[in-house]
Amino acid sequence: MPQIITGYFDTRRDAEMAVEHLVQDHDLDRNRVQAMAEGEENSSGTVISGADAAAAAEGDRPEGLRQGRIVVRAEVDDDLLEAALASFRECNVVELKTGQG
After folding, report:
1. HEC states along 48-73?
2. Class for the domain spanning 3-100
3. CA–CA separation, 47 vs 97, rounded Å?
4. N vs C: which end of the chain shows fewer Cβ within 10 Å?
């Protein structure tokens, strides 16, 4: 039975890396993976990183920053569960939940 993995990430980059690991390294169909802001506000995560870091160094607050974490949800089959969980951890997941799909 498919499992739903829900991971919460502080940076968009970490969330995107988790998605790429699932799709490219584990051949998970991209349609079985969703990435979104944690709340209703647009968010680039809770930690300044990537392209936002340059703007922050100049004193600008990137729009959408610190409005919430980035959530990645993936529906994986049982045989992929442990590898998918390891990928989330490798990509600095802050909180991780699993459940029946």
Report:
1. CCCHHHHHHHCCCCCCCCCCCCEEEE
2. alpha beta
3. 21
4. N
